[in-house]
Amino acid sequence: MIPVLSYQDAVKSEYLAFLAALAQSKFSGDIERSYASRLAVATDNSIYQLLPQAVILPRNHQDLVTMTTLSLQAEFKTITFSPRGGGTGTNGQSLTDGIIVDMSRHMNNIIDINVEEGWVQVQTGVVKDQLNEFLKPYGFFFSPDLSTSNRATIGGMINTDASGQGSLKYGKTSDHVLSVSAVLMDGTELVTTSLSAEQVQDQAQNNNYFGKVCHQVIDTITHKQQKIADTFPPLNRFLTGYDLVHLYDKSTDEFDLGRILCGSEGSLAFISEAKLNLTPIPKYRCLVNVKYDSFDSALRNAPFLIKANALSVETVDSVVLNLAKQDIVWHSVKSLITDIPNKDMQGINFVEFAEDDGDIQQQKIDYLTAELDRLMAAGEAGVIGYQVCDQLSDVLKIYGMRKKAVGLLGATKGQAKPLAFAEDTAVPPENLADYIVEFRALLDSYNLHYGMFGHVDAGVLHVRPALDMLDPQQEVTLREISDKVVALTAKYRGLMWGEHGRGFRSEYGPEFFGDELFTELRKIKAAFDPDNRLNPGKICTPINSDAKLVSVDAKKRGAFDRQIPISIRESFTKSIDCNGNGLCFNYDTKSPMCPSFKHTGDRRHSPKGRAGLMREWLRQLSCHEMNEQKLGQQLAVQKNGVATFTMRLKNSWNKARGRYDFSHEVMDAMQGCLACKACTVQCPVKVDVPEFRSRFIDQYHSRYMRPVKDFAVGYSESYTPMMAKMPNFFNFWLGQDWVQSAVKHTIGMVDIPLLSTPTLSESLRGHYAQSFDLVFLQRLSAEDKAQHVLIVQDPFTSFYEAELVASLVNLVEKLGLKPVILPFKPNGKPQHVKGFLAKFAKTAQTAADFLNSLHALGIPMVGVEPALVLCYRDEYKQALADKRGDFSVQLIQEWLLNDKVQTNLSKLVKRNDAQPYYLFAHCTEKTNKPTAEQEWQRVFNGFGLALETVATGCCGMAGSYGHDAKNVAASKSIYTHSWKHALAQRDPSRCLATGYSCRSQVKRIDEVRLNHPVKALLGALN
């Protein structure tokens, strides 16, 4: 039995008092102080971990004013804050032991747009891709790009002055910020705009925070302007923290205070809104993918490519390419990055051209390709081939792979993982190749593996050395490498932080700026934040303060993870390995991952949040000298007697009385998971929440009572077949509103579906398909076996959609084959979802033994419901290992594409139907079987039908999730965000859904019955 896990790192008393006062004020946002909430923002995409005191989530600009004004009271003067956006920082920029002020949950509205003047006004919690999706119909986009664009917020981009691909033309974020609305630490509201020197002089006379700011910037520019010009090299990515270079425009005699805030990493003010300029979307885009025999050749050839007047030149090494080939993303790009026969591709440059004039675009492409042909013919520059991608969809696919590079590196096997700590150095592009030679020599001297990719046109290369932070000695190595990279970048007139901000690397600031200019930064910090309360220690500290800068020696996640025994870490790699890249925060409702986060905006309810909670739970168990593996083994043989029941009842009673246990917080996050399994594939490091979720739930209920609904779901495969023998009787009662209400209030389940009438056996009475006889099948000749197909039943379609199974039987017959329906055997998926792991293992073994006996026949086995078919492949392997056997159950589309079926199909007459069908694939199917949608399209093409795939997220039903009374609102909200809109745009009679739960959800909410693809295929043969 697991122990009670008591409070850890309690919130400090002064913070509790501040939070209580804030709750009593006019503040309208959320205030979270639970350990789980704090833990969810204690990490980002960096190696560091720092637990905040609380999380504050304002709803609007006024909430920030209320919060800062309250903090001025004498008793709250020690309270510190750190603004946070998407939490994708690679160097701990927003991490703090004070209060996190998260702008992303509520302050994510697009306020206004003026197409004529070319600007848009947004709250700073808006995600970059969200903004561009809004702007697209107007023909504009927000042009600064970054790999985390589907979860990075505008506020985060401003605070790090973000930029990425295309920066030579489009510049950095600061180049597109017209003005910002901000709140200073004293509650002063500031709207930045260009001010004349005279206006700034006038403001400097005021004795408030803003007056002091104006006074200081005038003083700095007046006395240090030449020093600024001499110190900062002309790099595209030079990031000063407080942008002294662009603060003052000598030609217009104007100051732009917004430039100081851009890149300030939340250390000067809270930025609530931003007015951004817009860039017209180019009409023509094309990528030329240039392939090289070495990565050094790719780097040295970059200046040649830049001279072709390209928009950008991006590079990727073979390490990243090989990792991409092991990921779901490769299925979308493999035809665009083909290997060269008899050549070893060790690097690739993606050269983009983007123009409004098609002729100019083609001229540039023709020139470059002719030059590449010349280089290949001469065997020069290491160029071994190239491909031209002139379809926008292909361009976007390539960039999708390139943007995933950061996460892909985290998928490296073994304890040592590529880490971000010196990953965004910038040097003049002409020095890049020589610089990288020395950089690689440095890493090779430590015998480290690493991957490289980045923006060679801007001299920025992302280098992530693989280190094991579970080994304290490798922390020492990290420090040594950091120091040496600082010296190396200085040698080449470059910079340690060329793109991702400073964060915990702020200690190197004085070395880059020199004492004279760094002192000016400290004076500016003092004007904005004299008491060092905003993200203290980042960028710089106020002048006359003895506060220290943060350091790369700060506590790291590895310090916590190494408290977990090695055997447990190895058993839970799918949670331990989460590197915080945050792809699960993807705002896109058309992406399956992660439905619970999309609904709640709560980072606890994301794969990253759940993985972090699981890591901490394992750590705390280890501190109690408890071993999860041994606990699991005990549970597998534990007898549920009176004593065990009594103990669980007592513990549950204590829980109801409010006794704290960290396990309750973990359970809350796990219960919010839909177990859709999108994270197991879409996450670059393959965080598998359903797997460790089920293990946790199993352990949790060793101490606490299970709710009745767990048994109702977990044992559904046992009682549903019995109910299906009397469908009319049970349907009569389930059709009564009062019965459904009683089920809701007693068991906690809603919208219980009606059983199929007629039943499957009634529909096929006397049919050959009902004549399963193992001995008979064993005696068949090989030729006769080749004419048979075994249909594996599942509880959903067999008992609730019997007509679908009957349709599959008819389809098999139409194709000239003999279907045989196997006896129903529980799959165990519901048990796994609810954490009945010992029972699941037994169920899985029974089913596996049965299916292995049939596998020996050599007759194909086909399942209808994707989630259960894929359970045979995934959960069965996890639970049974070698005992699973070699049986294979195919998805319908997989079977329909085999040679036998295709040969028979070619002989049949099909009905002519020019109108397309629309495929709404099950989220588990299309993520865990990446080629599923393309396979369905091939199948439909063979039947003479057109099929278009529809990009959607989760439907919100996810097996039993949507039937849980506590989840109904969430389930319907998730459906509304994605499926409802997609269906409303199409004729529902042409819409097809592969998942039973998906069809059930559509029927429940929109009262529309969607067909399974099998029905459409059968219709084509009628």
Strand-helix topology:
Elements: H1 13-23, E1 30-32, H2 35-40, E2 54-57, H3 61-71, E3 81-84, E4 99-102, E5 110-114, E6 119-123, H4 128-135, E7 140-141, H5 154-160, H6 167-170, E8 177-183, E9 189-191, E10 194-196, H7 197-203, H8 209-231, H9 244-247, E11 248-249, E12 254-256, H10 258-261, E13 270-277, E14 279-280, E15 284-292, H11 295-300, H12 302-306, E16 312-317, H13 318-324, H14 330-333, E17 347-355, H15 358-378, E18 383-389, H16 392-403, H17 405-409, E19 417-418, E20 425-426, H18 432-445, E21 450-455, E22 460-467, H19 472-491, H20 509-528, H21 557-561, H22 566-571, H23 573-576, H24 595-600, H25 607-623, H26 628-637, H27 642-656, H28 662-671, H29 679-682, H30 689-700, H31 708-714, H32 716-723, H33 727-734, H34 737-746, H35 760-763, H36 774-779, H37 782-785, E23 788-792, H38 795-800, H39 802-814, E24 818-821, H40 829-833, H41 837-855, E25 861-863, H42 866-873, H43 875-880, E26 889-891, H44 892-896, H45 899-906, E27 917-920, H46 923-928, H47 932-942, E28 947-949, H48 968-984, E29 991-993, H49 996-1006, H50 1013-1021
Parallel strand pairs: 2-4, 3-4, 23-24, 23-25, 25-26, 27-28, 27-29
Antiparallel strand pairs: 1-2, 5-6, 6-13, 7-14, 8-9, 8-13, 10-12, 11-12, 15-17, 15-18, 16-17, 16-21, 19-22, 20-22, 21-22
Helix pairs in contact: 7-8, 8-20, 18-19, 25-28, 25-30, 39-50, 48-49
Structure write-up:
The structure is a single chain. Strands 15, 16, 17, 18, 19, 20, 21 and 22 form an 8-stranded antiparallel β-sheet that branches. It contains 50 helices and 29 strands. Helix content is 45%, strand content 13%. Helix 25 runs antiparallel to helix 28 and helix 39 (802-814) runs parallel beside helix 50. The relative contact order is 0.07. It is an alpha+beta fold and 1022 residues long.
